[in-house]
Design a protein that fits this description.
The protein is mostly helical. The protein is built from 18 helices and ten strands. The chain has four domains: about 70 residues, no CATH class; about 80 residues, no CATH class; about 80 residues, no CATH class; about 190 residues, Orthogonal Bundle (hpI Integrase, Chain A). The longest helix is centred in the N-terminal third of the chain and has 23 residues.
């Protein structure tokens, strides 16, 4: 770290280095051991090609941000940089020739608009296939065999000829890119699993070429195999439907907008679901005690989830600003921020703090600034996301250590929370609002009176029996 005098301020800049006898600044940084296998050298060394301190500090900061993101992606099992969809790469290729899609069929375009590009593609195709096969492809419109040419070249040619209809597997990267979720591992993994679900029993072809009979066979084969629950199967086919709709619409694939995945039925949906286990009143009483003395944040997360029914992602994404302790009725605001998406629009809500949740929030807010993260250990600054998977694992480990290996998971706090509210006769609309399942339409939503009413039910629910105590 180098201390630079920039105007009236002294600024510490990481990874800046000036070799002995040199006047230009360099960027030097060790590669973390966890990702060293992805780099040729154990360190990164780049000349910043400037002698100016201010410019060097700016460049070093930009490089640090770039490598922080790159390291974060590799640690999460993602490639160094987001994969660019074939469609986008094909458009870029056409742009280098001054072209656009459907250029060959556009009667208003100059006659020689596509000549250079077509000559280029003709030469490439002639070089890899016999004359008879070339003529069948070039003049009779036969499909180019898979792996014969680069996928980008094939897509660019089909685009310029107005024949572009990608197979289903090509939709995944475009869908992730169009949704702006390239950094969201959970989202990308979900899209890839949905495609695996399709290709396990059906061929890879344009969505519009599937039939309703094939969709029924896909569902039947997965049910017969029994490897996934019906709810999981329904969710994956729903993702396929959203994927095909989004990409076909944005890329103007008219032949594939009307595909058979728009309407499907999974027989006996959720009949195979297992009821999630609730915590008993006795177990909740034990967990309200100090369960993680050495790792205070784990205990605070557990106590907050226990008394509020929050999802772990909602807890991890809290800032000190979201915690209102100086009101007559202390409460927290669950709202979207750049590091944490909310599951639904109904998830934005106001929840009173009672019991151990109030004590946990008082402790976590102490000594922190208003814009600080409440649980910084579970925030990934580089990826701009929460580490909710790590948080869940840590809380579950502590729960099992206290209650035994067969104890419910931390997600069961939500189910127990709802059961306790129901058992103190809390109205369903308030239960739904507290749990983030539905927003209130009341004019008092988020008002002191509204929060006071919720607080009354939450206080009553502290000692109320949970679902298992009524069995």
């Amino acid at each position: 770290m180098v201390l630079l005098a920039l105007g009236a301020f002294n600024v510490s800049v990481k990874y800046l280095w000036k070799p002995k006898g040199r006047r230009t600044w360099h960027y030097r940084r060790h590669v973390p051991s966890s990702v060293k296998a992805h780099y040729d050298q154990p360190h990164i060394l780049k000349s910043l090609q400037t002698e100016d301190d201010v410019e060097a500090a700016k460049l070093a900061t930009e490089l640090s941000r770039h490598y922080d993101e790159e390291f974060s992606r590799l640690k999460r099992g993602l490639p160094k940089t987001p994969a660019q969809p074939i469609y986008d790469l094909a458009l870029e290729k056409l742009n280098t020739f001054g072209l656009y899609r459907n250029a060959v069929n556009d009667q208003s375009a100059p006659a020689d608009t596509a000549t250079d590009f077509l000559d280029h593609m003709e030469d490439k195709l002639r070089a890899v296939v016999p004359k008879a096969q070339f003529e069948a492809i070039w003049y009779k419109g036969e499909a180019i065999p898979e792996a014969l040419m680069e996928a980008v070249d094939v897509a660019a040619l089909e685009l310029v000829q107005g024949r572009y209809r990608p197979r289903a597997s090509f939709y995944v990267e475009s869908y992730i890119s169009l949704r702006g979720r390239t950094e969201d591992k959970k989202f990308t993994d979900g899209a890839k699993r949905a495609m695996q679900c399709l290709l396990e029993f059906l061929p890879d072809k344009p969505p519009g070429d599937y039939t309703r009979a094939e969709v029924r066979r896909l569902i039947s084969c997965h049910i017969d195999k029994g490897a996934v629950k019906t709810a999981t199967l329904h969710r994956r086919i729903t993702i396929l439907r959203a994927m095909f709709n989004k990409v076909a619409k944005e890329h103007e694939l008219k032949a594939d907008i009307l595909h058979p995945f728009n309407d499907f039925t999974v027989p006996r949906l959720r009949e195979d679901a297992k009821e999630r286990q609730d915590f008993s009143t006795g177990e909740l009483a034990i967990l309200r005690q100090a369960i993680a003395r050495r790792k205070q944040q784990i205990q605070s997360l557990a106590h907050l989830m226990l008394e509020t029914g929050l999802r772990v992602n909602e807890c991890c994404g809290l800032k000190v600003d979201d915690v209102i302790l100086d009101a007559e009725t202390p409460y927290i605001i669950i709202q979207k921020n750049p590091f944490r998406r909310l599951k639904t629009s109904s998830s934005r809500r106001y929840i009173p703090l009672v019991g151990v949740a109030l004590a946990a929030m008082t402790l976590e807010c102490k000594g922190k600034g208003s814009n600080d993260w409440l649980f910084p250990s579970y925030i990934d600054e580089a990826a701009q996301t929460t580490k909710n998977t790590s948080a869940s694992a840590a809380i579950n480990k502590r729960i099992r250590a206290v209650l035994g290996k067969d104890a419910p998971t931390c997600h069961s706090f939500r189910h127990s929370f709802n059961s306790r509210l129901r058992n103190v006769e809390c109205p369903k609309d308030i239960r739904d609002e507290l749990g983030g399942w539905a927003s209130s339409v009341s004019d008092r939503y988020g008002s002191p009176a509204d929060i006071k009413i919720k607080q009354r039910y939450l206080l009553q629910s502290i000692d109320a029996p949970s679902g298992v105590d009524w069995v």
